[in-house]
């Protein structure tokens, strides 16, 4: 229930559910009744902190194991600062673990958001897309992470659309898609194209040949 994008909201999914607490209750209780695994969910902030707390309390009563709270409202944009103080209001009002989300862009932010909100754990999105080494106190240069990501995508035969999306997000954050690197990624239609763009042709050939031999065996 955290996605505010038009395709989700127009289809009655994601953040559209935030205005339908009865439906939220029915979905979560049905999942709890029919699954033997822990059930969690994620919400965004509502118009007021009081409204968010009331929804969180109702969700808690469904028996979910944890609740993730994104510190922005549906109308907020990524450039708007996450409201960590309103996540803290939820933490102090329920007994289930709260997962704090919003504006975690570097390693030290994990502890900062936990300290400010009192949350039990943290969820990160854009920060991890831009530089996956955010989870280590020894953050790597994004150029190194990017090249390693390309090689891992080749090794695991990663979905091309997902690979391009992640690379473009990294490039947009650190440089610009209109520069030669960005244009090359945009034009790439296969992992082979990306391998050529980043000078990883030999690695690509090695991986694909070994993969073919494995299939033959």
Features of this protein?
53% helix, elongated, 217 residues, 2 domains, 4-stranded parallel β-sheet, TIM Barrel, 11 helices, 4 strands, alpha/beta
Question: Overview of this structure, please?
Answer:
The chain is of the alpha/beta class. The chain folds into 2 domains: 6-124, Aldolase class I (TIM Barrel); 142-214, no CATH class. 53% of the residues lie in helices and 10% in strands. It has a 4-stranded parallel sheet, covered by helices on one side. Strand 2 (66-73), helix 4 and strand 3 form a beta-alpha-beta unit. Helix 10 runs antiparallel to helix 11. The longest helix is centred in the last third of the chain and has 16 residues, at 201-216. The chain is elongated. The chain starts with 5 loop residues before the first helix and ends with a helix. The model has no long low-confidence stretch (mean pLDDT 95).
Structure summary:
With 217 residues, this protein is of the alpha/beta class. It contains 11 helices and 4 strands, in the order ααβαβαβαβαααααα.
Measured distance between first and last alpha carbons? 46 Å
Structural class of the helices, strands and pairings?
A: alpha/beta
Number of strands: 4
At the first level of CATH, what is the class of the largest domain? Alpha Beta
> What gross morphology would you assign?
elongated
Q: Considering the protein shown, what is the CATH homologous superfamily of the largest domain?
A: Aldolase class I
Which quaternary structure do these chains form?
single chain
Strand content: 5-15%
For the largest sheet, list the strands in their spatial order: 1-2-3-4
Major sheet: 4 strands, parallel
Low-confidence stretches: none
Number of helices: 11
Average pLDDT score: 95
Query: How many independent structural domains?
Result: 2
The succession of helices and strands, N to C, reads: HHEHEHEHEHHHHHH
Which architecture of the largest domain would the CATH scheme give at its second level? Alpha-Beta Barrel
- Gyration radius (Cα, Å) is 21 Å
Fraction in helix: 40-55%
CATH topology of the largest domain: TIM Barrel
Organism: Cannabis sativa (Hemp)
InterPro entries: Aldolase_TIM, DUS-like_FMN-bd, tRNA-DUS-like
Domain DUS-like FMN-binding: 1-167
GO molecular function, one term: tRNA dihydrouridine synthase activity
């Amino acid at each position: 229930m955290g996605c505010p994008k038009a395709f989700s909201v127009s289809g009655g999914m994601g953040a559209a559910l935030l205005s339908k607490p009865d439906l939220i209750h029915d979905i979560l209780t049905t999942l709890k009744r029919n699954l033997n695994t822990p059930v969690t969910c994620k919400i965004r902030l509502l118009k007021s902190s009081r409204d968010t707390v009331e929804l969180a309390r109702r969700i808690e009563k469904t028996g979910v194991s944890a609740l993730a709270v994104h510190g922005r409202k549906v109308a907020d944009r990524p450039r708007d600062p996450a409201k960590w103080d309103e996540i803290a209001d939820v933490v102090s009002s329920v007994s289930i673990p709260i997962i704090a989300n919003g504006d975690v862009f570097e390693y030290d932010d994990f502890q900062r958001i936990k300290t400010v909100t009192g949350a039990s754990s943290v969820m990160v999105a854009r920060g991890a897309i831009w530089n996956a080494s955010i989870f280590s106190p020894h953050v790597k240069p994004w150029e190194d992470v990017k090249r390693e990501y390309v090689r891992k995508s080749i090794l695991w035969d990663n979905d091309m659309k997902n690979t391009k999306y992640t690379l473009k997000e990294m490039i947009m954050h650190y440089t610009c898609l209109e520069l030669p690197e960005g244009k090359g990624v945009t034009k790439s239609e296969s992992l082979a194209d990306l391998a050529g763009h980043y000078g990883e042709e030999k690695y690509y050939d090695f991986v694909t040949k070994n993969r073919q031999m494995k299939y033959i065996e």
